[in-house]
């Protein structure tokens, strides 16, 4: 999807009030503090656990599913993404009323990870981790990206060499279900550096894959993001928040241990804001990319944080650059990143 296509979808999403949309399909929302709450339409929900956040997103603590109006439309009507976009576009244009939802139970592939899933995912992470040292290409990529060896070890980085089925032949059906293998037997993360995402209890909740080339750079498992990357940093009263995991790993490589990441420029969802606020964080340094998407994402993030009484500051990166590219191009990355973080205190947003 091109930048302009993403921009068009973002504009469409911003035109549609999620609370109004839900009301139009017969889902009753009630105030719950500064949020709106309802019985989740995607599963049996005796106690209301479905919340609509200030950023026009939703999250259900019962089935642990969240997203935007497109995600919700896919699930309510059992549609592909493109068909869901068309339905939202028709709704926004007032040309087609919303029919009654057809789905009341989540597809299995989108439910939260179960304990057995997490156990297998831990084994996969360990397998990938063991393969990393045997890949000169993957190690060269990480070194080029200025990711330190200590960060590689501390964050359990790995490499998918393509032998997952051979190493776990008894788990093929389970690997398929988790989205770690394709039906033809190939590894969905093949050729990628892998980064596990751990939740606050230390269990793997997601797996990020970054290709060594420019094509199809990013991959995640088909499960919702339930936590920020590196939530341990929420123990600090001041944190640095990046829009990508690679940027966060870059800052950790230069001893900025209070760094976390969301998953994209528009990735600071309401539930993540709650995690930050409930941890007692008072100041957030936004290390977002210096481009249009990063500027818009940082502005929106600052607004969400402001509503929770949290101050936001912006790292002033050179135009068109991100944290990792700054580190790659600098003769002294540690000193340059330290300057950017230090100077951000003068750039409150």
Automatic annotation (TrEMBL):
Basic and acidic residues bias (residue ranges): 339-349
Gene Ontology CC, one term: cytoplasm
Organism superkingdom: Bacteria
Database matches in PANTHER family: DNA PRIMASE
SMART domains: TOPRIM, ZnF_CHCC
Upper lineage: Bacteria, Pseudomonadati, Verrucomicrobiota, Opitutia, Puniceicoccales
Keywords: DNA replication, DNA-directed RNA polymerase, Metal-binding, Nucleotidyltransferase, Primosome, Transcription, Transferase, Zinc, Zinc-finger
UniProt protein name: Toprim domain-containing protein
Record-annotated Toprim domain positions: 237-320
GO molecular function (one): DNA-directed RNA polymerase activity
Biological process (GO), any one: DNA replication, synthesis of primer
InterPro entries: DNA_primase_core_N_sf (IPR037068), DNA_primase_Znf_CHC2 (IPR036977), DNAG_N (IPR013264), DnaG_primase (IPR050219), TOPRIM_DnaG/twinkle (IPR034154), TOPRIM_dom (IPR006171), Znf_CHC2 (IPR002694)
Location of the region described as Disordered in the Swiss-Prot/TrEMBL record: 327-349
